[in-house]
Amino acid sequence: MNSKTVGLMLSALFGYFNIMLFPVGLNIEYVTLPVTFFSYKAFIAIGGMGVLVYLALRKNVADILKISCIWLILSFLPISNIIPIPSAPVADRYIYIPLLGMCLAAGYGMKYLCSKKKALAAVLFILCLLIFGTMTHARNYVWNNELSLWNDVVKKSPEKATGYYNLGVVYQDRDELDEAVRQYSLALQKDPAHALANINLGIVYYSIGSIDKSIKQFSEAIEHNPGFSKAHYNLGRVFHSRGNVKEAVEQYETAIKFNPDYAEAHNNLGAVYKSMGLHNKAIEHFSASVDINPESLNARNNLGGTYLSRGMFDKAIEQFRIALKLDPGNITASNNLRIATSLKTYSRQQQTPSDHTK
Q1: Residue 1 — pLDDT band, cuts 50, 70, 90?
Q2: In the predicted model, what is the mean pLDDT of the chain?
Q3: Which domain holds residue 277?
């Protein structure tokens, strides 16, 4: 165990003591950095654990208090970053189990105080209710919606990309694309390797017609994470829309290579192959798409349409009927089914010898 890991452990333990005893500045994205042995955080973390161990081992301590201390020690171990947790070294959700020990200790302390000074215990209890009740009420405003939540994260952890990225998602969902671009750009300033921010920023640029900027973002996402299938898929979409068929096929195939169950990539690759006249390959990928996602109306219609263009009327009709079962009001499937049925009837009539008198 190196000094960095020990420093991170001490920082995390300080964070947990702080959250449990003085829950001010709660955040869903804490900034947790290793500390030195001579910092006040290390002193508090070591001192806090020392008190817990002392109470757990002392003979004349009440059993319930010993149990609560042992519970806290044991439940702190897996979340103390002995094995570092890179994604979130400290998080509120990690202390739900340790809090049981804290509640046992607090309950014992209140009972002991009641036996000595009831009035003081009552006043302390009411103060706790008022203080923590007010803090909970205030925190509920933060959790009122996604916008207020992620704005709170940005305010408290401005150096982390997570808050900016999620604000970008919120604004993108609201169709406030200029603000989405700004937030994703800020996320990438904080973390240039944030591939998801690259992807979403690229999607926004694509939707507003900034194709070159879109390609740049998807390419950067691939540069940071070559196996990121979503980046290859979206880059393929851009090339497909521009008529760069060869590049589109390459990107879709790469996306499928890294994620064989990528239904949308199979469907889009099938569409490219169909446009190239490679109907067998198109059928192969449309079929893969509906196998992975049987409820995809787009893939069903594409598969049925390819069967129809090959004169495979029964298979085409089957796909259009399934599409209509999934969505009875689907106009594309309804029109295609009518066309397929008519062409099947016409084909049979053409194949049946006419009855006439010579």
Answers
A1: low
A2: 93
A3: 260-352
